[in-house]
């Protein structure tokens, strides 16, 4: 059985660990609030951009663009696919990284020729250790998602898509459904379905609109900005989910530390009380032996 010194050392170690987990919880909560604020600040622009794309489809029904699926009856799209996988730079976030990796592996089973574009050190290490080839790895950190980085990712993917090297592009990210729940998702980024930008409840636009030089050119000039916004939203959502998962993991660690400290304190008191009782017993036995010796 451990003595008081060993138990006291264990208590101090748990207390130091609790300080770290509590600090990580506070840092994650601060990063989460800041990221959500940044997303809310940029959200109106991309909603307005989506509204303008909807207006084009309401005005011109037969507009054609390679960013969208061909019309009904056209041959299906065949060819290599790409996938942007968004993970974190480190662990200590519950099942956040593993859920995203699992979605990417499912997609790899469906498309053996899938080309991976990875964001986050965790995903890079995972695929590298298992000799899963990566087409491109974005070496900057996933801890600071910005619009400029989203544009860099978008430019690379769109370049491959425009040149026909990728016929479809998927994105694996973690969607924050609510403040307490999130889920890893696989979404096809390109090409879009036309129904994604259609409003069934609205009537076609009857007022004359003039598109210069033509509706197709206008639509194609707007789609790269929308794709960048989509990627930025996915980066922010994933980052928020990572911080939320880390907060949950650190809160659970704090609770476990409190429980362990309670058990260690009780054990320490028991061992200490046993040692005191033993010392009193030894002193009493010694005093009794001395009295018996004097009586003799």
Walk me through this protein's architecture.
It is built from five helices and five strands. It is an alpha/beta fold and 296 residues long. A five-stranded mixed sheet has the order 3-2-1-4-5, sandwiched between helices. Strand 1, helix 2 and strand 2 form a beta-alpha-beta unit. Helix 4 crosses helix 5.
Quick structural gist:
The protein is of the alpha/beta class and 296 residues long.
List keywords for this structure.
5 strands, 296 residues, 5 helices, alpha/beta
Helix-strand layout with pairing:
Elements: H1 4-59, E1 81-86, H2 96-110, E2 115-119, H3 121-129, E3 136-138, H4 147-162, E4 168-176, E5 182-190, H5 215-295
Parallel strand pairs: 1-2, 1-4, 2-3
Antiparallel strand pairs: 4-5
Helix pairs in contact: 1-5, 4-5
| Secondary-structure content class | alpha/beta
Number of strands: 5
User: First CA to last CA: what distance?
Assistant: 40 Å
Largest sheet properties: 5 strands, mixed
The ordered string of helix (H) and strand (E) elements is: HEHEHEHEEH
CA radius of gyration is 30 Å
- SS element count, helices: 5
- Proportion of strand residues: 5-15%
Mean pLDDT, to the nearest integer, reads: 80
Global morphology: elongated
